[in-house]
């Protein structure tokens, strides 16, 4: 098991039992919606409220310990912060995979045509996962 206490501290966050559990859940499950996270947290802390989880999540996002992945037309999911990557979502079962894509050329082209200074390049692609293609 990862030592999330230290990692939380590196992000200037006190390692409360709730935060450790959030870190652990995201570490084990990958991308999670707030509802799924709530479900898991309730098993450990039976009186925790959704508001408490939101408060912790928001603070952990502010401190870059976790990040929000915005999926078009779906609920946001949360994951531990790691290297910049893109996502691919199955439109049938909502399974989410991380994919590393080189978007530097795309970003450059977008910058040239829009005159924006681009500082973030990630994508959410969608389709059918291998399992769902067989149904
Ligand atoms: Zn699928
Ligand atoms: Zn991801």
From TrEMBL:
<dbReference type="Pfam" id="PF01475">
    <property type="entry name" value="FUR"/>
</dbReference>
<keyword id="KW-0804">Transcription</keyword>
<dbReference type="GO" id="GO:1900376">
    <property type="term" value="P:regulation of secondary metabolite biosynthetic process"/>
</dbReference>
<feature type="binding site">
    <location>
        <position position="93"/>
    </location>
    <ligand>
        <name>Zn(2+)</name>
    </ligand>
</feature>
<keyword id="KW-0805">Transcription regulation</keyword>
<comment type="function">
    <text>Acts as a global negative controlling element, employing Fe(2+) as a cofactor to bind the operator of the repressed genes.</text>
</comment>
<protein>
    <submittedName>
        <fullName>Ferric uptake regulator, Fur family</fullName>
    </submittedName>
</protein>
<feature type="binding site">
    <location>
        <position position="90"/>
    </location>
    <ligand>
        <name>Zn(2+)</name>
    </ligand>
</feature>
<keyword id="KW-0479">Metal-binding</keyword>
<feature type="binding site">
    <location>
        <position position="132"/>
    </location>
    <ligand>
        <name>Zn(2+)</name>
    </ligand>
</feature>
<comment type="similarity">
    <text>Belongs to the Fur family.</text>
</comment>
<dbReference type="InterPro" id="IPR036390">
    <property type="entry name" value="WH_DNA-bd_sf"/>
</dbReference>
<feature type="binding site">
    <location>
        <position position="129"/>
    </location>
    <ligand>
        <name>Zn(2+)</name>
    </ligand>
</feature>
<dbReference type="GO" id="GO:0003700">
    <property type="term" value="F:DNA-binding transcription factor activity"/>
</dbReference>
<dbReference type="GO" id="GO:0045892">
    <property type="term" value="P:negative regulation of DNA-templated transcription"/>
</dbReference>
<dbReference type="GO" id="GO:0008270">
    <property type="term" value="F:zinc ion binding"/>
</dbReference>
<keyword id="KW-0238">DNA-binding</keyword>
<dbReference type="InterPro" id="IPR043135">
    <property type="entry name" value="Fur_C"/>
</dbReference>
<keyword id="KW-0678">Repressor</keyword>
<dbReference type="InterPro" id="IPR036388">
    <property type="entry name" value="WH-like_DNA-bd_sf"/>
</dbReference>
<dbReference type="InterPro" id="IPR002481">
    <property type="entry name" value="FUR"/>
</dbReference>
<dbReference type="GO" id="GO:0000976">
    <property type="term" value="F:transcription cis-regulatory region binding"/>
</dbReference>
<keyword id="KW-0862">Zinc</keyword>
């Amino acid at each position: 098991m990862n030592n999330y206490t230290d990692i939380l501290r590196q992000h200037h966050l006190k390692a409360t039992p709730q935060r450790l559990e959030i870190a652990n859940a995201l570490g084990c499950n990958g991308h999670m919606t707030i509802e799924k996270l709530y479900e898991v947290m309730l098993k450990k802390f039976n009186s925790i409220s959704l508001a408490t989880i939101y408060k912790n999540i928001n603070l952990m996002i502010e401190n870059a310990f976790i990040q929000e992945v915005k999926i078009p037309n779906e609920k946001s999911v949360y994951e531990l912060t790691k290297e910049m990557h893109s996502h691919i979502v199955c439109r049938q079962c909502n399974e989410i995979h991380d994919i590393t894509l080189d978007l530097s050329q795309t970003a450059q082209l977008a910058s040239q045509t829009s005159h924006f200074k681009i500082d973030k390049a990630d994508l959410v692609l969608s389709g059918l996962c291998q399992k769902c293609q067989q149904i």
